């Protein structure tokens, strides 16, 4: 094709691109009404599917919650681990145990799902979803494919299926943007309602994102293919290219939208996310804003704009909640201060004096902003410890004991242990190391708390941690020892298994462990097994007592 031919074709196509369509025949109007209705119907089916899944999950969670409560009540103040009640609750229901083993908690294949897949030692391809998650995602995928094709007459001699499929994929892409935006937020109410972790929603967010991209591309493709099929290849292509100009808002914004969606897909593989998390996040948000604005303009005057509005509202509420929590927690009563102290073994201890603290519970994590180190970025960390003091008394901080258990307590300070990685955490470590005395004070903002669990209804609790993962377990250990001493839990045995590289990592939590080991009745319930994988000499490995034992290596000492 010579350039002149292209120009002629362009010129020939311009009237098509801008012309008002010829007035539709009654037959066409009837078809359009029918098509619009079936698209609305499909939106309803999707909404009902979501509602049914959420309802089923709610019933499941409430049942589990009730069972736990009963188990805890039945075992309060009842004997040892070999006590009849403890035994009764320790016998699992076989079917449920099987379901858990093979479906609910099962990895997809042999590999544990949280271990990353590596192509080589430098590249990881990400984590695989678990079996139940895979089932859900596959089901959702199949449902979307089905919704893209059902009720459309794929054999119509007038080729109406191009328009029908174009409209259908477009509607579904916009509809899926609602869960896409909702599940992206860490304040998504489904997290606490269904007791499903943000991690899982994040996984679903990524897969729904992929579905939206595919639907957007299909939407664009059906539009192009329709033009080509109806006008012939030459005119059709020319029409497509002439339409993609700023003065044709519908097509221009649609093109930008689809391109930004594809760009998001290309910049978000696990390798990129993990290697350049901060850059990934900023580009991701920028592209999402471009895509959303483009789609918004694309939908001007179309009823589907209200679906997009729903998605945008989900996002706006989440962001406002974050801001609200941030302001309330850190500016209520002075400003939150953090003391950052370098520790042996490439870690820092951050002690937070939060302006308006909350009731500390085991399993909580926060997002921390530290402008002097990380500007506006935030990073998630588990709360490893809280020092509490009675709210209405001037007494010095007491260790947790029976007396103050029921007193209203406010945390005077909360602490984090942060392992040095390569970005924000590395900067923080180096700053502390260079500061006088190995520590510095700075202003920090804490967003949270997020999440918490209780293991108090279980007779035997085994906690495993490797390295800095101990931050999540220490509060559970303290919680269970205190609850046991007060006769408030079903727990009779707690075993903490901690795998560390070198004994100097013990320093990270030494003061807290000393407190826990000194607690009332601790010996009756707590056992600690330490495995040191890279001791400098065997002399370093010695067991302080029978309830705290240290072994070299990975557990061959067991
Ligand atoms: C719920 C939760 C609790 C955590 N608790 C602790 C803890 O108690 N102690 C501890 O040392 N670490 C904890 N982490 C890990 C900690 O968040 C990361 O190590 C830290 O954000 C790395 O920052 P960096 O800039 O040095 O990362 P980099 O060295 O740039 O990257 C290291 C890894 O951290 C991930 N990462 C980087 N920034 C973020 C971010 N803003 N959000 C999420 N992931 C990120 C990257 O994907 C990468 O895999 C926790 C993480 C989560 C999700
Ligand atoms: C497709 O959607 C557009 C915009 O809502 C509408 O004008 C057109 O009639 C629809 N076509 C069909 C076949 O449903």
UniProtKB/TrEMBL annotation:
SUPFAM superfamilies: Ferredoxin reductase-like, C-terminal NADP-linked domain (SSF52343), Riboflavin synthase domain-like (SSF63380). Its EC number is 1.16.1.9. It catalyses: 2 a Fe(II)-siderophore + NADP(+) + H(+) = 2 a Fe(III)-siderophore + NADPH. The keyword Ion transport applies. It comes from the Eukaryota. The chain crosses the membrane at residues 45-63, 135-155, 167-186, 207-230, 250-268, 280-299. It is found in: Cell membrane. It is an enzyme of class 1 (oxidoreductase). Pfam families: FAD_binding_8, Ferric_reduct, NAD_binding_6. Residues 1-19 form the signal peptide. It is a multi-pass membrane protein. Keywords: Cell membrane, Electron transport, Ion transport, Membrane, Oxidoreductase, Signal, Transmembrane, Transmembrane helix, Transport. Residues 319-456 form the FAD-binding FR-type domain. Its main location: membrane. InterPro entries: FAD-bd_8 (IPR013112), FAD-bd_FR_type (IPR017927), Fe3_Rdtase_TM_dom (IPR013130), Fe_red_NAD-bd_6 (IPR013121), Ferric/Cupric_Reductase (IPR051410), FNR_nucleotide-bd (IPR039261), Riboflavin_synthase-like_b-brl (IPR017938). Belongs to the ferric reductase (FRE) family. This is ferric-chelate reductase (NADPH).
């Amino acid at each position: 094709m010579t350039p002149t031919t292209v120009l002629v074709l362009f010129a020939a196509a311009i009237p098509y691109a801008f012309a008002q369509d010829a007035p539709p025949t009654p037959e066409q109007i009837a078809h359009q009404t029918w098509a619009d209705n079936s698209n609305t119907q499909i939106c309803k089916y999707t909404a009902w599917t979501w509602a049914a899944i959420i309802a089923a999950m709610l019933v499941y969670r409430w049942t589990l919650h009730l069972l736990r409560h009963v188990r805890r009540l039945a075992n309060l103040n009842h004997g040892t681990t070999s006590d009849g009640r403890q035994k009764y609750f320790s016998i699992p229901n076989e079917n449920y145990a099987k379901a858990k083993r093979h479906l609910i908690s099962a990895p997809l294949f042999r590999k544990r799902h949280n271990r990353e897949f590596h192509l080589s030692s430098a590249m990881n391809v990400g984590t695989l979803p678990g079996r139940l998650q895979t089932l859900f995602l596959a089901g959702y995928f199949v449902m979307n494919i089905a919704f893209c094709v059902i009720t459309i007459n794929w054999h119509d001699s007038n080729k109406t299926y191009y328009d029908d499929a174009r409209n259908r994929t477009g509607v579904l892409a916009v509809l899926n943007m609602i869960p896409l935006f909702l599940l992206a937020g860490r304040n998504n109410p489904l997290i606490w309602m269904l007791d499903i972790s943000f991690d899982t929603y994040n996984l679903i967010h990524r897969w729904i994102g992929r579905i939206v991209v595919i639907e957007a591309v299909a939407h664009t493709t059906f539009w192009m293919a329709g033009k080509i099929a109806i006008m012939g290849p030459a005119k059709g292509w020319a029409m497509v290219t002439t339409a993609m100009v700023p003065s044709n808002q519908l097509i221009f914004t649609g093109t930008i939208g689809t391109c930004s969606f594809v760009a998001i897909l290309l910049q978000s593989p696990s390798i990129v996310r993990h290697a350049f998390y901060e850059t990934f996040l900023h580009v991701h948000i920028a592209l999402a804003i471009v895509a959303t604005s483009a789609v918004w303009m694309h939908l001007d005057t179309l009823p589907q704009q209200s679906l997009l509005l729903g998605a945008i509202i989900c996002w706006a509420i989440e962001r406002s909640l974050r801001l609200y929590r941030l302001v309330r927690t850190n500016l209520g009563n002075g400003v939150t201060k953090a003391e950052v102290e370098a520790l042996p073994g490439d870690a820092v201890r951050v002690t937070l004096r939060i302006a308006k603290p909350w009731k500390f519970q085991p399993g909580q994590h926060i997002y921390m902003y530290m402008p002097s180190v990380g500007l506006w970025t935030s990073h998630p960390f588990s709360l490893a410890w809280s020092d509490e003091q009675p709210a209405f008394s001037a007494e010095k901080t007491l260790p947790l004991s029976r007396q103050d258990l029921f007193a209203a307590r406010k945390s005077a300070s909360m602490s984090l242990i942060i392992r040095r990685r390569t970005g924000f955490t590395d900067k923080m470590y180096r700053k502390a190391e260079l500061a006088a005395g190995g520590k510095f004070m700075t202003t920090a903002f804490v967003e949270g708390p997020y999440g918490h669990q209780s293991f108090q209804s279980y007779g035997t609790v085994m906690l495993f941690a490797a390295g800095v993962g101990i931050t999540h377990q220490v509060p559970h250990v303290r919680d269970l020892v205190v609850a046991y001493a007060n006769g408030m839990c079903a727990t009779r045995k707690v075993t903490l298994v901690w795998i560390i590289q070198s004994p100097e990592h013990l320093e990270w939590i030494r003061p807290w462990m000393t407190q826990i080991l000194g607690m009332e009745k601790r010996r009756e319930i707590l056992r600690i097994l330490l495995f040191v994988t890279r001791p400098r000499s065997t002399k370093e490995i010695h067991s302080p007592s029978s309830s705290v034992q240290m072994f070299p290596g990975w557990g061959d000492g067991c």
